[in-house]
Amino acid sequence: MTVDRGPIAILAGAGQLPELMADRVRRTGRDCRVLAFRGFADAALRKKADAVVDLLDVKRALACLQAWRPSAVTLAGGLRRPRPSAVLNAFSAFRNREELSDLMGRGDDQLLRGVVRLLEEKGMPVVGVLDLAPDLLAPAGVQSARAPDARDRSAIETGLRLLRDLSPYDVGQAAVVAGERVLAIEGPEGTDRMLARVRAAGRASMWRRTAAGGVLVKVPKEGQDLRVDLPAIGPRTVAWAAKAGLDGIAVASGRTLIVDRDETVRVCDRRGLFLVGIDLASLEPSSAQDHAA
Amino acid sequence: MTVDRGPIAILAGAGQLPELMADRVRRTGRDCRVLAFRGFADAALRKKADAVVDLLDVKRALACLQAWRPSAVTLAGGLRRPRPSAVLNAFSAFRNREELSDLMGRGDDQLLRGVVRLLEEKGMPVVGVLDLAPDLLAPAGVQSARAPDARDRSAIETGLRLLRDLSPYDVGQAAVVAGERVLAIEGPEGTDRMLARVRAAGRASMWRRTAAGGVLVKVPKEGQDLRVDLPAIGPRTVAWAAKAGLDGIAVASGRTLIVDRDETVRVCDRRGLFLVGIDLASLEPSSAQDHAA
User: Fold this and answer.
1) ipTM for this model
2) Who has greater pLDDT, A253 or A55?
3) Could you give the domains of chain B?
4) Which of helix, strand or coil describes residue B48?
5) Which of B14-18, B53-57, B109-113 holds the top average pLDDT?
6) Number of cross-chain residue pairs from A and B with Cβ atoms under 8 Å apart
7) Which among B29, B145, B172, B196 is most buried, taking Cβ atoms within 10 Å?
8) What residues in B contact A207, CB-CB < 8 Å?
9) How far is B43 from chain A (nearest CA, A)?
10) Contact call for residues A172 and A180 (beta carbons, < 8 A)
């Protein structure tokens, strides 16, 4: 990846990430330009941004980028929420309708791959948090005061196997597992809404006391483009997990963004949840069949 | 399976199924006793039942069954909704707490397996719709005026592969797939609520027009005990699928209960959905890897 000539261009969506990324880039002495999407990027960032563009104003966005001649482009912030399709929409004018509708019939993976392909066709390599701000990624090991117990570890293993087996389907990056029971699999609705669902189900259950608990397992799919689609958690995720009655959260170390790590761990400790980073590379290739009763 | 001496005992939960089963049993000249669960079984059925018992009154339920000396027992009607755990609860007095809490940590499969084991330990073989009323099962082939097109067939194939790959995890029996995109996987909340979720997501999407449609695929898990846990659809399922904007429904022929088949097909035709029964045995063992992009 050539990241040596020209500035880094940040296409800024919602949340703190764009600013954190800009900060990291500048700290390493590189030039940085921020293109903030109106309606998505934080107001504070928009004021400091080099350009503020409507998500649908593709012409201006492309013109900015081409004028800046960036050595690399990164997509940062809430571009998944309100949906990556909104991003694709922004670029749709440059593709024929058939190609677009073909992309739309596929999952998030393919959508984001489409955006990356478009940018790279314009001569702009796409980079991500792993390249620009690796310190924002989850470290390996237990981050919280509480550590997962044997039952939690078994739930984490089940969740990791499940998500790996789901990788070909481009569905969710996350699941909630209690013991050996899968309580929910994330769909396009996202992690927070999946947790809300688990919470609602727990409330409706007459088995609240015996069946309580569970672990949120969130890891990237195999083959997921981590430059544009990095699993993320933050204090809000922890709050939702606590409301759903979960015991803790397991993420892939080095492959998960933790938005505001200090506060995330603080909320974990305050709510009594564990947070653990699992080094996926260290796991032996185990068989899903092992789990069948 | 010995079904020749003694009556067939029907443990009756909610819905029309218990009455339909009793009717089928009597039509074949066999004796039939109905034990209706108060609060679950329909009022009309309760009046005709041989016994009406509280779900939690295990002692009386067992006493009835043992007095009837049934050749076989069947669990019919809404015993999944309000949760199979309620059934287990009814029998929990006969198991130690540790065993119970172990069962509770597992999925529906194991719960129902526990109930079956308990009944069989008492010398009562458990039978199901496949044994007693096979005419209530989905036939193979297209049942509706509309037939699935190429895109629908591709969605059905993806859904079948997905659910097969999920079999070891004891999670849902159903998924919604549009094109190659998985929109939802059923958790413990059940099919209707999953469809409500797809509906809500579709409403929130700016891509409603291009991304509309999809297929509800509902099939048993591999190794699922079809005597007590048969996937079911009915007119209400079709209504929910229509509200979610789906194109149709695919079920496993011979392995899916259609509650009120005539009305189910009528609602399909009225709402413009297809309904197709897939003969799972006829499908070649294809690889999930085929699907990876």
Assistant:
1) 0.70
2) A253
3) 8-133 (3.40.50.20), 137-291 (3.40.140.80)
4) helix
5) B14-18
6) 132
7) B172
8) 83, 85, 104
9) 24
10) no
